[in-house]
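#structure-requests
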Amino acid sequence: MAETRFERPTAGAEGKRPPLPSLTGMRGVASVIVFLCHIIIVAGDLPYDVDILGIFEDADVRDTYRTVFGVVGYTCVSFFFVTSGFILTWARRQKDTRRSFWRRRFFKIFPLHLVTYAIGMVCLTGTLTSAADIPGVFLLQNWIPDNRVIFGSNGPSWSISAELFFYLMFPLLLPWINRIKETRLFPWLIGITVAVFAVTVFSHTVVPVEHQVWFSYVFPPVRILEFVAGIVLARLVISGRWFNLGLAPAGLLLLASCVVARNVPEVFAFAAVTFVPVVLLVGAGITADLGGRQNILGGRFLVWLGDLSFAFYLVHLSVLVGARRLVGMDQSWSIPGALVFIAVTYGVTLFCAWVLHTYIENPAMRRWSSPPRPTRPAATGGAPEKAMEPVGPQGDTTSRDSE
C-alpha cells in the first residue's frame, strides 16, 4: 500500500478544514442500504406486527433478498459509528468547551428524534404503544436488555441512543487520545481492533444467548470502540500518517468481509468481521478528497443524500411499515410490483427526510445550538470553562457533515 502524498490537512484562511464530500456521499449510500436492509423485517422481529419482505410473492426471491441484504445493515451501522468519531474530531472547534459541544449535539439530535419518535408511535407501535416506549423518548433504551424497550416506538432510534453516549464521552475522551504520540496511533488502532474481537468472543462464549444482541450490537460501552476508532483515524489523517489504499480496493475488501460475515455466528457479523474494512473504506474516502481525486461518491446527488441521512434514517422505518399496512398485510406481488413498492416508499421517505431536515433539523440547530448573545457585559468573577484540547491547527470544518 502506497503512502499518502497529501500533507497534513490544516485550517484554511477562514479557519476551516478541507471539505470531505466523498465521506458525506458514503453516508448517503449507507442510508440507501439501510433502507433496503430493513425490508427484511418480518413479524416478530420488532414490536410491529408486520412482514415487509412479504411484498415478494415468490419465497425463493424472499430468500435471495435476505441472503443479499442479511448482514450489510450491520456494516452500515458500524460505518456510521466510525464516521461519527472521525467527523466530530475533524470538525471540532478550537476553543470549544464541553458545555457548548454538548449543547450543539443535544439540539442536533433531540428535536428530530422527538418528532420521528412521535411519528413512530402512530405508524409503528400504534395501539401497542406502552410504558416500554418511555425510555426511548429520552434515548435511554440501549441500557435496558429488553428488545421491546430497545426497538420501541421508533426502532432506528436505538443507534441514536448509542450516539448520545458517544457525545457525552467525546469531550472526555479527546484530551486523553490527544496525548497519544503520533508514532503510536497505529498500534492503538490495532489495539482497538483486538478489543472489538475480544468483546465479541466474550459475548459469544459467556453472555447468555438471549442477551447477545443487546451486549454485542446495542450496549453503548461496547459500540463506543468503533467511535473511538474514528477519533484515532482522524488523528492519523490530521498528522499525515494515514495510508492511501484507494476506494476500489477498500470497497472490494469490505464486500468480501460481508460475504464472510454471512458464514460466521451472528455476533461476529455485527462489527468484528467488517471492522477493519470499514475503517479502511472511510480512510480511503477521506484520502481521495484530500488528494483532490474526484469520484462518484463526492457527486452532488450523493452528497445531498448524505446531508439528509440523519433525518432519512429516523423516519424510514415508519414509512416502510406504514406503507405495508396501508396496502394490506397480505398483499404481495411479482418482482416488478414489489420493486415499485420499494421505489415508491423510498421516494416518500426521501421527501419526508427533506421536510424534516429543512423544517426541523436545520432550524433547531440555527435557533438553539448556540446560546443567545448577552445584551450586556457578562459578570466577571467565575473561572471560564476549560476548552477541549485541540487536535492540531483547526477550526470549523467545511465538510457537509459539519457539526
